[in-house]
Give the backbone structure.
Amino acid sequence: MAPRDEIRDTLFPLFVNDNPFRQLLLPPRLLTKPFVAPGQTAADLGCGPGYYTLALAKHVGPEGKVYAVDVDEKPVRALEKKARERGFDNIETHVSSASGIGFIGDASVDFVLANGLLCAMAPRHHESAVSEMKRILKPGGRAYLSVARGPWSHVDGAEWEKILEGFRVERRGGRLPLIAHRWAVVSLLSVPSPIANT
């Protein structure tokens, strides 16, 4: 196995993330609708060809916005084509690593979706990607994080727990041996207000 410093991002073929069987087994609205409302801003980090992005765009509506970010240009272009064909003009796409998303403003996003993102990223980028998620989340905003389990994942159980320590964990799952992934709904830890000098 390659040393952690040499592990590269994992890129998936389009059909893996965008196929009818996946739609039947896990309709994207199940993961997106509970977390966003019309007029809000969402970020789909590791968006691939937009499996969840289009559902997010529908839920936030024309007054809302979705940032769709993926390091692989091919699925981003496929998403742009689907968005045009379906009339979505509230999606802003970027070919970029989630560890460098300076184009998204500080505390500007209501919901961050990072479904499988970290387990597909090279480990050296995990800390900066998590830091960026915290930076863009609004106070009161939430994020859905998930990682695959097993030898194909770049996130082990110890790192997963360390990542979650930096957030307020609202719900979590996937700790049972038969569950193929770990997931958590998180929000920012509260930051104490500065004490005024009197």
